Amino acid sequence: TCTWFCCWAGGQFWTIAISKGCHAAVVKSLMRAPIDKFYDKTPVGRIMNRMSNDMMHVDTKVFLRICSTIGMAWSVSVPIIYVHLMMPLWFTVLAVPYYWLMISLLRLYWKTTVPLQYLAQVCTSSVDGELAEVQSSNTSVRAYNKASHRLRVFQMALCDMVSAKFLGETVLKRWLNNRIFVLGGIFVTCLALVIVWVPGATLDVGTANLCLVLVFSIIVSIESMVHSGASAQYQIIAMNRLHEYTALPQESPEELTTDGPYLSHMVHIPRAELLVLERQDVLGRVQIAREGSPFDVLLQQIPYRPAFKAPCGKTLSLIAPECE
């Protein structure tokens, strides 16, 4: 019970930490992403899909899929190691080409399914974008009589998404399952022939039966193992898609250390501290000057703005002598 509780607490802490760090990094990057280089070129559906679907997978399924993948690796590796420990060394050497072919199949499946997973997510983003566009511009679509056109566009996007998901989640999995079944059948057949035909290949009949049962159990559970591995692969892809948003180009800070000489400063001065001033209208602009000195201008109106600035050569001490 204590071990189970420690594992559960550690898993929850790890999941919350990775979700918090991932969410904070992505949101920080998106808030500082440039308008012209990112938001003007990226569809809304793609951002929605990554921030909803991919983030949900990171929050709820990463820890479970990693644990299931580790358990699957142990359930396959331990029986295989036991079989090779019980069999002669030359049987292990002869099985090397078999394992090389198995690894080649897995690599080919991985290289093929990763682009298809990305394609499925891109198609899902297109569907989300169409839904968001219709929800935000429903009135315009009906006013311009474009409902049938938008429906056809949505159906095409939905068809692309279903095709990509069917190809990546059904066809490729069945392709891999069939080939692993064939290779597993060849392996267990060779193992049975060696046990029967080669004298002294195993220690006793019980060991031989156990080796065959272990290999058969692996073959029977191949489909569930492939499904678990594909699910774990999708979690890796989701985390990689979110990581891509943390590497977006960022806008420059609002204030740099070199902006000091160019910053505008706001000063509040009580009216009692000012000199006796008078207002003048010159060329449609308001000027403030000393009373009796119309050419001694202290403040000038900024063109087309209800604000004033000091003329060149004037300082705050000339406008408010008693202000420190």
Automatic annotation (TrEMBL):
The keyword Ribonucleoprotein does not apply. PROSITE patterns: ABC_TM1F. It is found in: Membrane. Coiled coil: none annotated. InterPro entries: ABC1_TM_dom, ABC1_TM_sf, ABC_transporter_C-like. GO terms for molecular function: ABC-type transporter activity; ATP binding. Residues 1-24 form the signal peptide. Residues 38-233 form the ABC transmembrane type-1 domain. GO terms for cellular component: membrane. It is a multi-pass membrane protein. The keyword Nucleotide-binding applies. The chain crosses the membrane at residues 62-83, 89-110, 180-200, 206-226. Keywords: ATP-binding, Membrane, Nucleotide-binding, Signal, Transmembrane, Transmembrane helix, Transport. It holds the Pfam family ABC_membrane. Belongs to the ABC transporter superfamily. ABCC family. Conjugate transporter (TC 3.A.1.208) subfamily. This is ABC transmembrane type-1 domain-containing protein.
